[in-house]
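Researcher: Dear colleague, please comment on this protein.
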Amino acid sequence: MLFGGDGPATLRRIGRYGGGWVAAAGLGAWSAATAFAADVRGAWAAAGRSGTPRLVAMVYTSAGLNARDEALRHIRSYYAFLGPQRADELARHVITDPAQLLDTRDQLADAGFHELLLLPTSAERSHLDALEVALN
């Protein structure tokens, strides 16, 4: 069982019951995610758990033609309850550049993350194909 969150209760849950942590790092929270991952490993060890916790990160992505516009449209809709200014701020963190996606993947791997989940901001086949090309 993987837990999300980033507070003391999350650390207690992981230490006692969890198999690891899911980081919602997808909207510019890379440094916070890598810092909390160290806390997760510490809580794991303090609980006397053997091995290491599984670390998974999620990031919003968009690729292909009009990637930035697709990201903005999706994030504005999904996070509309936060208001337009905050939704636009969050949309700026969607990874739309293939080099940035590879760099993010590598940074998270260097920080000990085992897996990266991509959250595409478009269901268009061309955008999904562009993501696949970017990662290969």
Summary: The chain has one domain: 2-135. The beta strands are 2-3, 20-26, 54-61, 115-120. The first helix runs from residue 8 to 16.
